[in-house]
Design goal:
This protein has helices at 14-27, 57-69, 85-88, 111-126, 148-156, 161-179, 197-203, 222-235, 259-274, 305-320, 326-336, 356-378, 380-385, 388-393, 398-401, 405-429, 432-442, 444-462, and strands at 2-6, 31-35, 73-77, 133-135, 184-188, 209-214, 239-247, 283-291, 340-342, 346-348. It has 469 residues and is of the alpha/beta class. An eight-stranded parallel sheet has the order 3-2-1-8-7-6-5-4. It is globular and about 85 Å long.
C-alpha cells in the first residue's frame, strides 16, 4: 500500500513530511511514490527545470531517511513521455515537443528526447541509491502521432501508433535496466489498453516492466479492469499494480475531498484484488493510493494534502481491513483524534493529525467566507443605499450608510484576522508560492470584494452627502 505524493503542486516542506510519515505507516501504508517534477534538485543542463522552491539534495536524503524510519519504501517517479510540461515549457527543450504548439508530450524520434529523459532518470536514480522500484510514468501521451516526425514514421510502419509508443518506452526501459540491473520498472497502463496482446508481447516490454492499472472513479468498472488484466497476463507480464485515488480525482479545481467518492473507488478495487485468483499467471504486486495535486503542470491546485488526510485514512484502513468495517471506522477515529467520523460531514469533535488546523480552517473558509459577504450584499440597506451604482459615482446618504457601518467593519476585521492566522498555518506546511496560489484561487476573489466595499464606503462617507460625481 503505497501513498502517492504529487509534488508538481503544493509540495509540503520536509518538516511536514517528518510529521506525516509516521501517520501513513500507522494507517497501513508501507511505501511512498514521489512524483517530483520540478521539485527535484536537477543540476547542470537540467537546472532550469527546478522550481524556485525545489528540494535540495540534502532534503532528498532527509526525506529518504525519514521514510525509512517509518518503514516506508521510497519509489521515485520520473515522467519519460507524456506530462512533460515542466520540461517542455522551457525554450531550451521546446524543440523536443511532439506538437510544437503544445508542451505536453515528447517527440520520440528526436535524438535529444532520449538524452533529456536519460539525464533526468540518471540524476533522480543517483539520489535514490538502493531503490527497488522506479516509476517511469508514460501515461496520457497527448498528441502522440500528430507531429511531423511521427506522421512520417507512421506512414512507413502501417500506422502502428501502439508500436511507436512501445518502441520509445522500451528504449527508455532498456537504458534503465542496463545501467541499474535488478531495478523494477513500473508504468501507467492507459496507453497500452488498446494495444493488441501480440504487439505487447513482441515488444519485449513484459520482460522488464510492470503495468500499473489506474482508475479513480467512484463507480469502478471492475469488468473493464479485469479485461485489461487478462490482456496483460496474455501478453506475458509477470506482475501488475493497481492505482486508486484518495484525493485530487473528482474535479480539477476541487478544494474539498469527497470522502464517499474515494471510499467507493477503493471498495471497487478490493473487488478486483479479491478476484485476482482468476489470473494465475500474473501476480498482484501492490496498490498506489494516488493523491493528485494538479491534473497537469498548468492546471490549478486540487485539495491540499491536509484536507485529504481523512480520506486517506478511510482508504488505507478500508484496504487494510478488506472493507469499511466497524474496526476500520474505530481505527480511523483513533488515528485522526476525532470523536466521530461522518462520511458526509467528515470530522466531528476535533482532530489531532498533522495539518488538522489547515483542514478545519479550509472547511470554515469554504462554508462561510462567500456566504458572509453575500449576506451583507443582500442586506436591504446595502442594496437600497449602497448599490453598485452608488459606489460607481461615489454618492449616498451618510445617515443610511452609517446604519451598516459597524457590520461592514466587523466583518472585514474578523475575516482579515482569521485569514492572517490561516496563512500562518499554511506557511508552516507549504512554500510561499503555494500559499499565494491557494489564497488567490479560493480567498481573494471574495476578500477583494469585501475590501473594495469598505474602501468605497469610506470614500462616500467623506463626501458628506454631496451630488454624485
Amino acid at each position: 500500500r503505497v501513498v502517492h505524493f504529487d509534488l508538481k503542486g503544493a509540495a509540503p516542506k520536509v518538516s511536514y513530511l517528518e510529521q506525516i510519515f509516521p501517520l501513513l505507516s500507522t494507517l497501513g501504508a508501507n511505501g511512498i511514490l514521489l512524483e517530483y517534477e520540478d521539485m527535484f534538485p536537477f543540476e547542470g543542463d537540467l537546472q532550469i527545470l527546478r522550481s524556485p522552491y525545489a528540494y535540495s539534495a540534502e532534503d532528498i536524503e532527509k526525506i529518504r531517511y525519514l521514510a525509512g524510519l517509518s518503514n516506508l519504501e521510497v519509489i521515485p517517479l520520473v515522467q519519460v513521455f507524456g506530462h512533460l510540461e515542466f520540461a517542455l515549457k522551457h525554450n531550451k527543450f521546446a524543440e523536443l515537443r511532439e506538437v510544437p504548439e503544445y508542451p505536453n508530450s515528447l517527440n520520440p524520434h528526436t535524438p535529444g528526447s532520449q538524452a533529456l529523459v536519460r539525464s533526468m532518470l540518471s540524476q533522480v536514480l543517483d539520489k535514490h541509491p538502493g531503490t527497488r522500484w522506479l516509476h517511469i510514468g508514460a501515461d496520457e501521451v497527448f498528441g502522440l502521432g500528430e507531429g511531423l516526425d511521427s506522421k512520417n514514421w507512421l506512414n512507413s510502419n502501417n500506422g502502428d501508433l501502439g508500436k511507436m509508443f512501445l518502441n520509445h518506452v522500451k528504449e527508455v526501459g532498456s537504458y534503465v535496466t542496463d545501467s541499474h540491473p535488478g531495478l523494477g520498472l513500473l508504468m501507467w497502463d492507459d496507453m497500452m489498453r488498446h494495444i493488441s496482446v501480440e504487439t505487447l508481447r513482441e515488444s519485449g516490454l513484459p520482460n522488464f516492466v510492470s503495468p500499473m492499472v489506474w482508475r479513480y472513479h467512484a463507480d469502478l468498472e471492475t469488468n473493464q479492469i479485469e479485461t485489461y488484466i487478462s490482456s496483460y497476463q496474455a501478453a506475458g507480464f509477470s506482475n501488475v499494480w493497481f492505482a486508486s485515488a484518495f484525493k485530487g480525482a473528482s474535479g480539477p479545481a476541487q478544494d474539498w475531498t469527497p470522502v464517499s467518492y474515494h471510499l467507493n473507488n477503493h471498495l471497487g478495487w478490493l473487488k478486483v484484488i479479491n478476484a485476482m485468483s482468476r489470473f494465475p499467471s500474473i501476480h498482484f504486486q501492490g496498490i498506489v493510493l494516488t493523491g493528485w495535486q494538479r491534473y497537469d503542470h498548468f492546471s490549478v491546485l486540487c485539495e491540499l494534502f491536509p484536507v485529504g488526510i481523512p480520506s486517506l485514512a478511510v482508504c488505507l484502513q478500508t484496504l487494510k481491513h478488506d472493507g469499511f468495517t466497524d474496526e476500520a471506522k474505530k481505527q480511523i477515529q483513533y488515528f485522526l483524534g476525532c470523536k466521530n467520523f461522518n462520511l458526509d460531514k467528515n470530522l466531528e469533535g476535533g482532530g489531532s493529525f498533522p495539518g488538522n488546523e489547515v483542514y478545519q480552517m479550509v472547511l470554515h473558509i469554504r462554508e462561510n467566507l462567500q456566504n458572509d459577504i453575500q449576506k451583507l450584499l443582500a442586506n436591504n440597506l446595502v442594496r437600497g443605499w449602497f448599490s453598485r451604482y452608488h459606489r460607481k459615482y461615489q454618492f449616498g446618504n451618510p445617515r443610511n450608510l452609517e446604519k451598516f457601518k459597524d457590520r461592514l467593519s466587523k466583518l472585514l476585521e474578523d475575516w482579515e484576522s482569521y485569514l492572517q492566522n490561516f496563512r500562518t498555518h499554511l506557511e508552516d506546511i507549504f512554500f510561499p508560492d503555494t500559499v499565494e496560489e491557494w489564497m488567490e484561487e479560493n480567498v481573494n476573489e471574495y476578500m477583494d470584494q469585501l475590501r473594495s466595499l469598505a474602501t468605497d464606503f469610506e470614500a462616500v462617507i467623506k463626501r458628506g452627502g454631496q451630488p454624485k460625481l
